[in-house]
Design a protein that fits this description.
- There is one protein chain.
- The chain has one domain.
- It has a four-stranded antiparallel beta sheet with strand order 1-2-3-4, covered by helices on one side.
- The protein has 104 residues and is an alpha+beta fold.
- Strand 2 and strand 3 form a beta hairpin.
- The protein is flat.
Length: 104
């Protein structure tokens, strides 16, 4: 299911690569994703962070899915780290680019 691209405003933003990171104190599931618009003339690329917490009552969960626009070189670097399954390098790279608490 494609997402709405923030650049061309069409439902053509797709998750190309993803890797799950270890859980932390707040989130049970943390996934880093590379995002690319499949629109012919758009060229948008970005990073997605999917976080899910299943703590609390049995029927409760909290989900946060956030996207960040990046330079195409940054998205390519993250994609290469995902391909190599380099979770440590990935966390360091994302921490340099984005101020995300769970990368500390």
């Amino acid at each position: 299911m494609p997402f709405l691209c923030p650049s061309c405003n069409k439902p053509s933003l797709e998750i190309v690569r993803s890797i799950e990171l270890p859980p932390d104190d707040e989130w049970d599931e943390i996934t880093v994703q590379t995002l690319v618009c499949s629109g012919a003339a758009c060229g948008f690329s970005g990073i997605g962070i999917y976080e899910e917490s299943r703590r609390g009552a049995l029927d409760s969960e909290c989900v946060r899915h956030t996207g960040y626009a990046t330079l195409s070189g940054d998205a390519a670097k993250v994609a290469a780290l995902i391909r190599r399954k380099d979770k440590v390098g990935l966390a360091r790279s994302i921490q340099k680019t984005f101020p995300l608490e769970y990368c500390a």
